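Quick one, tokens below:
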């Protein structure tokens, strides 16, 4: 588990950076009370993270130039 100070430290670092949309959606999901809306948020978070993973994998692939 993360210690409270470590989590707070990471949060403070993020305040100075542009948050990614999935992070904003995750924050909303933590307080969402409607199960249908929460599922929509989680579905979108999942899609965004899969797209990010695909971009990162492509960046790591050697170019065929």
């Amino acid at each position: 588990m993360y210690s409270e100070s470590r989590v707070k430290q990471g949060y403070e670092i993020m305040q100075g950076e542009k948050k990614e949309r999935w992070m904003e959606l995750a924050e909303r999901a933590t307080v969402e009370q409607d199960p249908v809306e929460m599922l929509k948020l989680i579905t979108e978070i999942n899609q965004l993270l899969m797209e990010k993973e695909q971009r990162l994998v492509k960046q790591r692939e050697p170019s065929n130039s």
